[in-house]
Amino acid sequence: YVFIAPLYVAKCDKYAKAGNSKKLSRMAFWGGTIVNFVPSTILIMLAFYFGTGFSSTIVNAIPQFVQDGLVVASGLLPAFGFAMLIQQILRKEILPYLILGFFLSAYLKTPIIGVAIVGMVIIMVMYYDEKKNKSVGIGGISDDDDTDSF
Question: Is 136 left (phi over 0), alpha (psi -120 to 50) or beta?
């Protein structure tokens, strides 16, 4: 990935600057497939063909400081993921629902599936209420009403 991805990204940037959406789209599909799946497929096929001895040799060839860095990174990834999730959740429009879900779960001991069902009901009520409000024009007159009688 380290050697292939920069070439792929540079080519995509070139097509984007030129405004060539057809080639950019083709690169996004085929280039992404090649960059993401081909190296993994090759490594997996080699591991299956040569067995665990080959895999152990490859892993042992990785320097210890890189392996230690990967261990540290794997410990940080969940925290980073939660931080990104909280950053998205902690918006003033969503905060009341977060507090409601926490209250239901922590204090009322509602199972997670129950909290999810309550959330789904709230979303449905909001969706259908918004849909109803869009169909009603100013003064409570329906937009699709073609008659002029009051």
Answer: beta
Domain ranges of the chain: 1-61
Q: What is the pLDDT along the chain (150 residues), one digit of tens a residue?
A: 667 777 788 888 888 899 888 988 888 788 777 777 887 888 889 889 998 888 888 888 999 999 999 899 888 888 888 888 888 778 888 888 888 999 999 999 999 999 999 999 999 999 999 888 887 655 555 555 555 444
Residues with Cβ within 8 Å of 54's Cβ and at least 6 positions away in sequence, in order, are 46, 47
pTM, entire model: 0.39
Contact 47, 66 (CB under 8 A): no
